[in-house]
Amino acid sequence: MTLISTLSDKEEVTGYFLVKELDVKQTNSTPPKDYWDLVLADSSGQITAKYWDLKPAEKESLQSLQVAKVHGIVQLYRDRLQMKVIRIRPTGPEDDVRLTDYIRAAPVASADLVAAIHSKVDSITDTDIRNIAAFCVLKAGDRLEHYPAAKSHHHAYYAGLAYHTVRMLEIGEFLCLQRPFLNRDALIAGIILHDLAKPEEMNAQLGIVSEYSDRGRLIGHLALISGWIVEAALKLDIPTDSPKVTVLQHLVLSHHNLGEWGSPVQPQLAEAVALHYIDSLDAKLQMVEDALGSTAEQETWTPMIRGLENKAVYRTRF
Amino acid sequence: MTLISTLSDKEEVTGYFLVKELDVKQTNSTPPKDYWDLVLADSSGQITAKYWDLKPAEKESLQSLQVAKVHGIVQLYRDRLQMKVIRIRPTGPEDDVRLTDYIRAAPVASADLVAAIHSKVDSITDTDIRNIAAFCVLKAGDRLEHYPAAKSHHHAYYAGLAYHTVRMLEIGEFLCLQRPFLNRDALIAGIILHDLAKPEEMNAQLGIVSEYSDRGRLIGHLALISGWIVEAALKLDIPTDSPKVTVLQHLVLSHHNLGEWGSPVQPQLAEAVALHYIDSLDAKLQMVEDALGSTAEQETWTPMIRGLENKAVYRTRF
Amino acid sequence: MTLISTLSDKEEVTGYFLVKELDVKQTNSTPPKDYWDLVLADSSGQITAKYWDLKPAEKESLQSLQVAKVHGIVQLYRDRLQMKVIRIRPTGPEDDVRLTDYIRAAPVASADLVAAIHSKVDSITDTDIRNIAAFCVLKAGDRLEHYPAAKSHHHAYYAGLAYHTVRMLEIGEFLCLQRPFLNRDALIAGIILHDLAKPEEMNAQLGIVSEYSDRGRLIGHLALISGWIVEAALKLDIPTDSPKVTVLQHLVLSHHNLGEWGSPVQPQLAEAVALHYIDSLDAKLQMVEDALGSTAEQETWTPMIRGLENKAVYRTRF
Amino acid sequence: MTLISTLSDKEEVTGYFLVKELDVKQTNSTPPKDYWDLVLADSSGQITAKYWDLKPAEKESLQSLQVAKVHGIVQLYRDRLQMKVIRIRPTGPEDDVRLTDYIRAAPVASADLVAAIHSKVDSITDTDIRNIAAFCVLKAGDRLEHYPAAKSHHHAYYAGLAYHTVRMLEIGEFLCLQRPFLNRDALIAGIILHDLAKPEEMNAQLGIVSEYSDRGRLIGHLALISGWIVEAALKLDIPTDSPKVTVLQHLVLSHHNLGEWGSPVQPQLAEAVALHYIDSLDAKLQMVEDALGSTAEQETWTPMIRGLENKAVYRTRF
Amino acid sequence: MTLISTLSDKEEVTGYFLVKELDVKQTNSTPPKDYWDLVLADSSGQITAKYWDLKPAEKESLQSLQVAKVHGIVQLYRDRLQMKVIRIRPTGPEDDVRLTDYIRAAPVASADLVAAIHSKVDSITDTDIRNIAAFCVLKAGDRLEHYPAAKSHHHAYYAGLAYHTVRMLEIGEFLCLQRPFLNRDALIAGIILHDLAKPEEMNAQLGIVSEYSDRGRLIGHLALISGWIVEAALKLDIPTDSPKVTVLQHLVLSHHNLGEWGSPVQPQLAEAVALHYIDSLDAKLQMVEDALGSTAEQETWTPMIRGLENKAVYRTRF
Amino acid sequence: MTLISTLSDKEEVTGYFLVKELDVKQTNSTPPKDYWDLVLADSSGQITAKYWDLKPAEKESLQSLQVAKVHGIVQLYRDRLQMKVIRIRPTGPEDDVRLTDYIRAAPVASADLVAAIHSKVDSITDTDIRNIAAFCVLKAGDRLEHYPAAKSHHHAYYAGLAYHTVRMLEIGEFLCLQRPFLNRDALIAGIILHDLAKPEEMNAQLGIVSEYSDRGRLIGHLALISGWIVEAALKLDIPTDSPKVTVLQHLVLSHHNLGEWGSPVQPQLAEAVALHYIDSLDAKLQMVEDALGSTAEQETWTPMIRGLENKAVYRTRF
Q1: Among partner residues F26, F29, F217, which is closest to D77 by beta-carbon distance?
Q2: How far C283 CA sits from the closest chain D CA (Å)?
Q3: Which residue of C62, C225, C244, E24 lies most exposed, with the fewest beta carbons within 10 A?
């Protein structure tokens, strides 16, 4: 089976791909004609595609977030590859394809990631902090299994949120060993909670964010999770103004570090400082790793990466 | 009775003043001697004062936030007036002085301000919004009667918070009449709530903030009041993710307008835009009015005002 | 008659519209063919339109800022509606259409707005300030009747400048009542003058700015109106360095508040502070009201609004 | 005669110095005693001085901006030299001292500088531009002979404004030769006018700015000189909206380059670009030259220079 | 011979032009067809061009950076002129054309510029500084003869780097005469060295930068030339930590003035301050001169200039 | 023996302390009297001290960076403890004190830190990278044993530079294990080199920076170490423009991430991104740990920490 990341100019291809985006558009010929503007994806990357001469009868035959069988030709257009689709149809049981094989996903199985997070919750020694963390993980529900960590910034794929959390927990554990003055309970809980309201901030399926929710746009995931902590405290009969609740709220509210990055307060706690830099370190390195991974091996430079001061990254070859 | 704002160089004065600050310090003579470094205040302003040659026996005789009877001489020191205290003693019942006569306070009686706020809460037509606002006003409790609106920035006096709120409500009502497209319930509730968690953010007595609370420093009054709204909704059985709760949280979280001014989200609602600019208008104009009022009439320029891009204000004389 | 704001995809329409913009362009077919790229407008909004297969004989038959009779079909193109024009011709007397019915305009009649401004000028009690204000209003001339307040930022329609001024005057009067320490003469004059040189800064017809003037680009409306005040003082034999002239110049020069927003000096006068925030309040709320008004009722979010930190606005439905 | 720049610790000195600043202050001993806090100056620099034990009878015997005969001892205090004054008296005719010998002044005679400026005005070939420039130079009057270019930033000494102007004219002439596309009339007039309203912005005597004027604080020298140009045009019957008047206004308004540096418009004219960079070049290099000149020869680094990103300057020794 | 700067709409032209860029692209017709997307240039400017209906056999017949004989028709497309190419072929010996006649180049012969630079190197009196400057000029090699000073910002043409250097040297010499306190050796060497590593930072041919080099992107020309100075010192047996080497490194590292403009240190040397402002003055004025020169004479305004705060420049006509 | 961190108001103390700073100053009494202004230090912290009534004969008896025997009384002055010294004398062999017992130092022995760094150099597998790293470590020489990592920002104590480097190496090793796509050679070398030119940038003894060197101020440690790498390559016959040299230069030049923080280029390499965030993480957490450690246990908040957005840090007590 041909992976998108290996396609090259003029290659003719037949295979299964996820229809990640699907829009009916019109050419600017006279009279304009309908066509499909598609984004096809598999686990290795994505490619824009055009299906010209779309017939009225075909319009309803395909939907986005389906796996389709596609026959097409790859072409270089404005320096980027795109596919001219010749034939495309939705798959059925007879194709024997599994949706999750065709989406970009974290390199670790979702169930393992979620189990790791649960296990870290259980390892928190302070009862109140453990219970608040558990309450919030429960509130996130099964969305934690598949949500990405962001719309496009970083970890923008199936289970990206859980993967980001688990990798940060690994770094956090290392730092707690290296620096015993850190309060492990606070740091572990802070890492688990910091992005946990993202499922309330965004609407996502298959690791793909379609849009921000109204509540996400109007409140943001920092103040949302701070509200979850208040709710947890009330439900668990922990005073909402106790130091533990205060510290957890501070951890999540300050984790973007600066006001212009969305934090209403700045880190004023050892664990809050650690949380912010662990978050940056994991997010930035993942952006770099993913950008290098989705850039053809022979290319020395990746495309520009937004979250990296809009810089491209150089591939070391020694 | 002599007001502080009318004192002049070399004037000898006997009168009652609030001891706003009181510190035992030591001269840098050899050997160092103890003295009191004081800030004396009345309703017209404040003046620094020194009581030299403090005897060990006197040290415990006076406390801050008391009214004292003072005999002293005014002197010009480094371009500012200060008082050399000759005698000072705490007042007792025989002096027949009321503490509240000696502090800076809003120009409207505190009880009237609080009543006006309650009345505006009652005027909200939507039951959920009215109940949430009422819950939060109740939670602020009697601190609303005397809290200042800030430590020093603006309305930093007895009942300053209530006064700021009431004046903003007047502007808000005017705007709702001028622009019927505004949702009056949301705007009135937003104005009442926007600074209502300041009593949780700061510790104050007599309109004077002694310090920020731990919870105030770590969370800030924006996220605090957002948490109160969550609490209100839970207690009142209003879904925490309902549009009304979302809108109220958005109003308070966005009222500082920009991330660098402490808002994790920016105004995205007509009433949130109105709230921010009504808040600025009232706070800035009050700073100017108070600065002109506490600058001697013959002075053309006030001192620099921090909240006004650090500019002084010119007194128009025509 | 069909309003542009009510058009929908695939709708066939015949009606009168203002030709707001008109350009001859060429398709990128081989060989390229001429077509008209149009912007059609009425009082409810505007729509881009294409008239394909433009014949050489037709090229001179139509001009911009005319009302035309149009027959066309609405189409969705790149997520936005546009009109494919089938027939278009200029209107004549027989059509009995009035140009001003087809443009976006302030919701209050232009003559009433201008009369209100004149009346406020007359109400200024100080002779010098009143005469300077009157001189400048006279210099703006009849352009005050129809100029917009900006090219696109806010109040970008017929009589937008006068409307913005009148609404600000209403807020100003309210504040003078609420806060008697404000100098009403200075504030009323400042509001009237603050944008009054916009007609020298821009070239506009029918409320539509075609371009900035050379003088507008090189000097800007703040320094332009400051120069008008100097001119008024010289013509009226008021010393150019008198406090009243100084205060009026300061009001107009500082009304953008910060250097990076175009003010060479920052507000240092109670009335200058009031002027800036009244201006912001009116401009921002009008942007929001206009954005909500021109967004289809069923849409929850407006498009992004440039003057509002590039944020969209949420429509409250309760 | 001993120059201030050559004084050293513990040196006893008798000589004539300008009393640049003179304040009666009080020690913080008990009881406080009066003393004079002085700044003494000569052409080489300045030194703070204290005259302890000031007797009541002496208080009126001396004024600032007089030359005094002084006997004192130099002492190192907090890493800086200051003078302990033993005797001080104002000079009279018998001392045969000239005030101008004791102040910091431009290295070229004031009369020569002013003559050079007049000569450059005369060399402008365009009648309107020449007449406007001449009008403004006349309006500045004899203040041009002695005003500094700034309070402390650069050229803060007698005739500093004229010196700054003349040096910029030299660079301007060079650039006009090197780059014939530049309009010499506009550039020469722009240089002459750019800071010419500083005498209206500040109050100065002997090259020392005591304070900014009300008009200077409220309008600033950029908008002030722009107003002078309007006035000149009206008096000379040149249309105020003619391109020449527009260009001259643009040159002065844009010469600070950016909004945050006080320019309401940015340079949009070859000569405006040249003017800004010539101004920067001359001002910055003069700051460096003056800082090196007033730093003891054996010091490798000058103090920090505010106008130079707050950096100190290194003295090259090869 | 017709110059590109004089072409007008609908003009038919036959002439020689440099093929500055050449790409095979495809129309978005169905099926897509190949065409050449070209940029044609001569000494007067450049124009985009299309050669439709490119036949497979023609594809290899032409390369970029060749002079071609072209027959085409000029057309207005989206407000800009472009050329529809009818016939195009590479030139051969029989055409008798010289490549250098068809490129944009500095207005002074490259050989003269390089000779002027060598002569300035020789005029440096200090042996070490002269030798280091000579070493670096030698290392730049013959690239100094033809490199532009930037990709597009300023002096982006044949020998632009040498031209920029020579003009700055002229200003530098003038300033050394005007201000004898400047160290001429340091300033002359600083000017020669400041952009001398641009040939290592970019890949260019015929004055046209195709791309930045890997080393250029990863290190930048400031740190590159600083490294050349270290290399020169080592090769010439001058201690790398001597004041002269330090000063030369400081000059090149600080010449962008601020950290956000790429300088790791800020100017802290009289000559470094001079270098930065001479560089700005020459670069900005050249941008303006070139923008005016390449804008049609009848246009009052140039296009926006990136390096000039994105402002257009006004053409004075008096 | 009494540690400075345990001293309290009015305590009388006799002990050995390091004389960290020593200045002769004068009281502002009349006449002024000489006194010593001292900073005394031990491994637990430091305290300012005054020795009044310094006799001329005593002035030369003590020098800074000596251990002295001190008898004094602790006093609270302006809210901070200081010591009034009664007797002080330098120590001699008879006191049997070791200097290194009295200074603040990294918590790991200097020799162990240096050995760890050498061992990491040896573990680099690429010969060129290993040799360049070894060359630079050798060039830093024995200063690596005792230099602090900064003047006051972070790790400002004996062997702070080596300690910072070793802790970063630990985090770096962890990340290389967690993320195999990282090039360990580049990251390890980058960590070792990134601050290695600090000994050339500053002058320090006993972990205390007295001042920046001329070369440090004029070039900065980023461009300095970049120059060392060039020197290493030349001495080791590795081409200075090879990818390995380029990558090492890029790592050190970009490690401050942004231009305004001193990096002339931004990280464009996976390992450069990692290096910057590891550096921040270690430096910030060490600041927090050290601030908490030097704040009395009963205090909830540390003083404000400059490198932490000027925020204080809260001490968690659960």
Answers
A1: F26
A2: 20
A3: E24
- CATH number of the structural domain spanning residue C58: 2.40.50.140
Q: Which residues pair with B67 in a beta bridge?
A: B18
Share of chain C above pLDDT 90, in %: 75
Q: Where are the extended beta strands (E) located within chain E?
A: 12-26, 34-42, 45-51, 66-77, 80-90, 202-205, 208-212
Residues B60 and B157 in one domain: no
Nearest residue of chain B to residue A227 (CA atoms): B227
Angle at C27 between CA C26 and CA C33, to 5 degrees: 65
Query: Of the residues A54, A71, A100, which one is the last residue of a structural domain?
Result: A100
Query: What is the C-alpha separation between F113 and D189, in angstroms, rounded?
Result: 67
Q: At A74, which helix (H) or strand (E)?
A: strand A66-77
Whether the pTM exceeds 0.80: the reply is yes
Are F13 and F151 found together in one domain? no
Mean pLDDT score of chain E: 93
Instruction: Work out the minimum CA distance from D25 to partner chain B, whole angstroms.
Output: 7
| pLDDT at D78 (0 to 100) | 67
Q: Within this chain, do residues C95 and C135 fall inside the same structural domain, yes or no?
A: no
- Report the distance separating Cα C170 and Cα C150, nearest Å: 20
Report which residue type is found at F154: H
CB contact under 8 A, F77 and B26: yes
Residue F206: pLDDT band with limits 50, 70, 90: confident
Q: Are C31 and C78 a contacting pair, CB within 8 Å?
A: no
Q: Which chains touch C (3 or more CB pairs under 8 A)?
A: A, B, D, E
Nearest to F278, CA basis, from A274, B318, B259: A274
Q: Where are the alpha helices (DSSP H) in chain A?
A: 110-122, 127-140, 160-178, 184-194, 198-201, 214-236, 243-253, 270-293
Name the more confident of E56 and D130: D130
> Are B117 and B265 in the same domain?
yes
Please report which confidence band the pLDDT of residue C98 belongs to, taking 50, 70 and 90 as the band edges.
confident
ipTM for the complex?
0.90
CB within 8 Å: E226 and F219: yes
Same domain, E87 and E161: no
- D141 by Cβ neighbours in 10 Å (0-12 / 13-18 / 19+) ranks as exposed
Domain that holds residue D58: 4-100
HSE-CB for D257 with a 13 A CA cutoff: 14
Residue of chain A nearest B268, judged by CA positions? A218
- The answer to whether residue E80 scores a pLDDT higher than 70 is yes
Residue F306 lies in a domain: no
User: What is the C-alpha separation between F256 and F54, in angstroms, rounded?
Assistant: 46
The closest CB to that of B217, out of A219, A243, A268, belongs to A268
Helix or strand holding residue E228 (H, E): helix E214-235
The CA distance from F28 to the nearest CA of chain D, in Å, is 9
Mean pLDDT of the B95-101 span: 86
The answer to whether residue D14 scores a pLDDT higher than 70 is yes
N-to-C CA span, chain F: 32
Residues A273 and A163 in one domain: yes
CA gap B215, E59 in Å, rounded: 72
Span of C6-10, D50-54, D126-130 with lowest mean pLDDT? C6-10
* Cα–Cα distances in angstroms (integers) from residue B310 to residues B148, B284, C258, C314, D263, in the given order: 21, 12, 12, 35, 19
For chain B, the domain total comes to: 2
Calculate mean pLDDT across residues B119-131: 98
Nearest chain D Cα to F30, which residue? D52
Do A49 and A154 have their domain in common? no
Q: B273 and B126 share a domain?
A: yes
Question: Is-contact A47 A7, C-beta < 8 A?
Answer: yes
Q: Helices then strands (H, E): number in chain F?
A: 8, 7
Which residues have C-beta within 8 Å of that of residue D179, sequence separation ≥ 6?
A: E285, E289
Q: Is residue E299 part of a domain?
A: no
